């Protein structure tokens, strides 16, 4: 019992150290975003909220935020529509090559993002979608769909197929059984996958740099461009807002998964 206690305590300490190592660099951004000066320096000459006011009022930042929201919501919806039936087929289907199909779908999770960006650039350029918002939505949907698929597969792992058989025995068509029985029970997994897909799209910058023009620039791309063009504390303020939004969404995704784990 005592050995188990110390094993849990050591595991928690190590987890805390790893999290501190990963998150400590992000904490530097917060005081930089609150400086009253015009440069990204520490320590700053004073404290001010003016850079947050600039980000939330400047049309350049607001347009980029609007593009990120449109692309994120569009790619999330498409990823969920593609991943949900694919997850059902891979979880319950009995066909040759099922494991190979799962590995093929999960390829974007292991490939370097630069390779995906170059491939997306070549494909959408030949399709005439380069520089369009639709092309970026399709590319981000392909990037995030495997994550949604894996999340839904985890939810389906504990699903009782007897419920679907009972619905069929009562005369429910397959689509009705899917909508009234299956979907409500796996909804937390679907929603968690959708949130993660939105965060992936909202934070992605490499593919967006290849596929978008100045009119379709997303918020991460504006931040990245600002680091090369003009170093301003507004970049730090936008980064802090982006980190907070992503953290809140990921916490929501974890909360949705917790009842399923219990």
UniProtKB/TrEMBL annotation:
Listed Gene3D superfamilies: MetI-like
Subcellular location field: Cell inner membrane; Cell membrane
Domain ABC transmembrane type-1 intervals: 65-253
Membrane-spanning parts: 12-34, 69-93, 100-125, 137-160, 181-202, 234-256
Keywords, ordered alphabetically: Cell inner membrane, Cell membrane, Membrane, Transmembrane, Transmembrane helix, Transport
Main location: membrane
Record protein name field: ABC transporter permease
Protein source organism: Pseudogemmobacter lacusdianii
């Amino acid at each position: 019992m005592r050995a188990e206690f110390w094993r849990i305590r050591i595991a928690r300490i190590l987890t805390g150290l790893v999290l501190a190592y990963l998150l400590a660099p992000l904490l530097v951004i917060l005081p930089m975003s609150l400086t009253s000066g015009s440069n990204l320096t520490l320590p700053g000459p004073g404290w001010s909220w003016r850079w947050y006011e600039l980000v939330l009022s400047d049309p350049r930042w607001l347009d980029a935020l609007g593009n990120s929201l449109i692309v994120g919501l569009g790619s999330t919806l498409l990823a969920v529509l593609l991943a949900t039936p694919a997850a059902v087929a891979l979880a319950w289907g009995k066909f040759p090559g099922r494991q190979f199909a799962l590995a093929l779908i999960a390829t974007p999770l292991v490939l370097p993002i630069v390779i995906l960006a170059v491939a997306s650039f070549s494909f959408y350029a030949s399709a005439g979608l380069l520089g369009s918002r639709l092309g970026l939505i399709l590319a981000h949907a392909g990037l995030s769909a495997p994550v949604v698929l894996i999340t839904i597969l985890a939810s389906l792992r504990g699903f009782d197929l007897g419920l679907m058989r009972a619905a069929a025995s009562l005369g429910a068509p397959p689509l009705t059984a899917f909508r009234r029985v299956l979907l409500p029970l796996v909804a937390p997994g679907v929603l968690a996958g959708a949130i993660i897909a939105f965060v992936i799209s909202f934070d992605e910058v490499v593919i967006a740099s290849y596929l978008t023009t100045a009119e379709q620039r997303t918020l991460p791309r504006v931040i990245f461009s600002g680091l090369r063009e003009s170093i301003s504390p507004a970049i730090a303020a936008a980064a802090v807002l982006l980190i907070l939004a992503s953290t809140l969404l990921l916490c929501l995704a974890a909360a949705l998964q917790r009842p399923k784990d219990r």
